[in-house]
Design a protein that fits this description.
The protein contains ten helices and five strands. The chain is of the alpha/beta class. It has one domain: Rossmann fold. The longest helix is centred in the last third of the chain and has 17 residues. The chain is globular, with a radius of gyration of 16 Å. It starts with a strand and ends with a helix. The model has no long low-confidence stretch (mean pLDDT about 95). The structure holds 2'-deoxycytidine-5'-monophosphate. 2'-deoxycytidine-5'-monophosphate (DC) binds next to helix 2, helix 5 and helix 9. 2'-deoxycytidine-5'-monophosphate binds next to helix 2, helix 5 and helix 9.
């Protein structure tokens, strides 16, 4: 039976890690919807018009190994403001959400716009400083960040854009369970998420 778990929240709050663990726990498929916007953002950086890119996204676009850079993250947040880009990505996300064997989708607007009927909704957040520290620890060893202050400024710029856009702004759904991971380790955050989903099953 379809069962949709919507996991929203700001950049680097731990959504990806929690979503993968929750999907594995319940045996559900997982879609990182940020990857769709990153793939469109990367194509914009390569010279394509964002709306055209969103309307012609391929599996190959989604499987590239250069979608996790800070430049692509900012580009993703910029193309995500464009309503036609969001509209082009809607059907794919909704179809994924209703697959027969259960689905976890993580993003910014899953519980509010993509799947307002999701059986379980989580909003995963943490302070901007903690999120920047975590993102810096992830990017620095790959040579993708050299300075914590820059990462913090990037996180804040994305928060600002993602929360204040007119179409599908980042905000918790009214019926979302809020999980603040600022003082939780990964195991605690995953356990809190599983408990919240179990309460809806
Ligand atoms: O989750 P992420 O950091 O990979 O997302 C990259 C950007 O994509 C994010 O800053 C805003 C946009 N995004 C969105 O607008 N809606 C989603 N459901 C997922 C991501």
């Amino acid at each position: 039976m379809p069962f949709t778990i919507a996991i929203d929240g700001p950049a680097a709050a731990g959504k990806g890690t929690i979503s993968k663990a929750v999907a594995a726990h319940f045996g559900f498929a997982h879609l990182d919807t940020g990857l769709l916007y990153r793939a469109v953002g990367r194509r914009m950086l390569a010279g394509d018009a964002p709306i055209d890119a969103a309307q012609s996204l391929t599996q190959e676009d989604l499987e590239r190994d250069d979608l996790r850079t800070p430049e692509v993250a900012q580009a993703a947040s910029k193309v995500a403001v464009i309503s036609e880009v969001r509209a082009a990505l809607l059907d794919f996300q909704r179809a994924f959400a209703r697959r027969a064997d259960g689905a976890v989708l993580d993003g910014r607007d899953i519980g509010t716009v993509i799947c307002p009927e999701a059986e379980a909704k989580l909003f995963v957040t943490a302070s901007a400083e903690i999120r920047a520290q975590r993102r810096f620890a992830e990017l620095a060893p790959q040579g993708l960040a050299s300075n914590l202050d820059e990462v913090l400024a990037d996180v804040r710029a994305r928060d600002e854009r993602d929360m204040n856009r007119a179409d599908a702004p980042l905000k918790p759904a009214k019926d979302a369970v809020i999980i603040d991971t600022s003082t939780l380790d990964i195991a605690e955050a995953v356990a809190a998420a599983i408990t919240a989903v179990d309460a809806r099953r």
